[in-house]
Amino acid sequence: MRKILLIGIGPGGPNYLTLQAVEALNRATVFFIPDKGDEKAELRLAREQICERFITAPGYRFVTIDIPKREAQPQDYRATVDDWHARIADRFAQAMTEQLTDGGCGAFLVWGDPSLYDSTIRILDRLRLRGMEIDYEVIPGITAVQALTARHGIALNQIGEPVIVSTGRKLAAAGRWSGETMVVMLDGEETFAKIDAEGAEIFWGANLGMDDEVLVAGKLPEIAPKIQRIRRQVRAAKGWVMDIYLLRKAEDTP
Ligand SMILES: C[S@@+](CC[C@H](N)C(=O)[O-])C[C@H]1O[C@@H](n2cnc3c(N)ncnc32)[C@H](O)[C@@H]1O
């Protein structure tokens, strides 16, 4: 039986790492690093630096897993993702079989928390369904959602109300904001500036926890051009940007 630790490392600098994550880092000897090709070198480096800084025992190593490309604009999103995950599972299985001995302990350092918009858990489940003997353990991490609310100093929910966590793709498809408190992730298209969001207030953050972190808050749509300008500046400066935002009714502001 191979043991795999899915270690949530938080959404930015090493200060987001939990004590439980540090303890888990010291249990693994092989660190699998999925590489999508466009993987930002800085993010890969961040993972390696976390290991260097927090692992006390020598002898651990990194194993890169090349991740196949996914179709960019699929007709059938779910079927395309399903097929893509099957192909990733093949690569995971090969890497684990070749690089981790039976009884060994490997780990994936998962950005943020493994439960949120991350497929590592689903892919390991696939391997178990195929009959591979893997025992996995999830070590929770701070999510980008928590980093966003903490840095803006706001509560995630309004009193007694739910919160929707969604994606830029879903919000763009709806074309309008529903009026509920909503956190939007994975939005590469500046959807906040393209939808009908009258009456909304936005709390936006980019590259949270990193040296170039930026925060902007204000009423939509007035503030949207400012966020777009800053977002483009951040992206131009380092070649990529990761951003997240919360929308809520402006009148709910205390
Ligand atoms: C594939 S999801 C991974 C989420 C991660 N598992 C988590 O728990 O936060 C990537 C998205 O998370 C958000 N994100 C992750 N890290 C971030 C950061 N440091 N600053 C802003 N947004 C971030 C962005 O919306 C990005 O598109």
What does this structure look like?
This protein is an alpha/beta fold and 254 residues long. It has seven helices and ten strands. It has helices spanning 19-25, 41-54, 77-99, 120-129, 144-152, 168-174, 224-238; strands at residues 2-8, 30-35, 61-66, 105-110, 134-139, 164-167, 182-185, 200-206, 214-219, 243-249. A five-stranded parallel beta sheet has the order 3-2-4-1-5, with helices on both faces. Strands 6-7-10-8-9 form a five-stranded mixed beta sheet, sandwiched between helices. Strand 6 (164-167), helix 6 (168-174) and strand 7 form a beta-alpha-beta unit. The longest helix is centred in the middle third of the chain and has 23 residues, at 77-99. The protein starts with a strand and ends in a 5-residue tail after the last strand.
**Broad structural category:** alpha/beta
CATH topology of the largest domain: the name is: Cobalt-precorrin-4 Transmethylase, domain 1
The average pLDDT score comes to 92
- How many separate domains? 2
Specify the overall morphology. globular
Straight-line N-to-C gap: 53 Å
Order of helices and strands: EHEHEHEHEHEHEEEHE
Q: What radius of gyration results from the CA coordinates?
A: 19 Å
By CATH reckoning, the class of the largest domain would read Alpha Beta
Named at the architecture level, the CATH assignment of the largest domain is 3-Layer(aba) Sandwich
